[in-house]
Task: structure prediction
Amino acid sequence: MISSIAELISDRIGAMPASERRAAQTLIANYPLIGLKTVAEFSTAAGVSSPTILRFVARLGFQNYPEFQSALQDELAAQLQSPATRTLNPASSGGAVSPMLEATLDNMRETFRHLSERQLADIAATLAHRRGKTFLIGGRFTDPLARYMAAHLAIVQPDVYHLAGQEGIWRDRLIDMGKRDVLVIFDIRRYQDSLVRFAETAHQRGVHIVLFTDQWLSPIARFARHVIAGRTAVPSAWDSSAALFVVAETLIGAVTRQLETDGAKRIRELESLR
Result:
């Protein structure tokens, strides 16, 4: 299975010198468009030299800059696909469950292959904070994941809120968000403009953003402190959120363990109120 450039960066950024890390961070913050510009324009945006950009591209495994750009163009085309353009020919799919199951399992394996234990631990620590509030929200098809995660986190710690309803209702909650708070956002292709606007405003208020997205990266990645890029493509007109769901459950378990004493006490008190 071919890795996206964002996944390659995640795998290799730890071995990059500082100048190449700046190139990587600039690309992620403007993914994928900055990489479609000339080497000179990319280097200027990153504040590094043109040879640094070429070394960065080579470290990702590309023979040259045009090959790197071709891969980004393929990813951009994949980002823009809709269910209509992904509708399969029935004859090619065979109507079997097996290809869907295998693709879903592959998505889970690939998602966790590019997600380090350290990254999971850092995100769990962010979610287990005790100083501020935690808000969760998702898009048209991913909001059930946000609601599911919020329901669990609210049991083991206070001040956890799922943002539901119309965009105006979410924006009203911005007044309650500040530098001590965390906003968890689920956003996969086709990325939701209202979520991007909301994330940008929350970022301007100093809110720590944790983004669950796909391998092609929602534009919200430029505002996020932590990005979980899960595999979502399956042999279907629809993307699958199964891998992101498993990551969410993994983090729910990790947060529960980190809050073991306080969480257990809170669970006992909740049970006594039933």
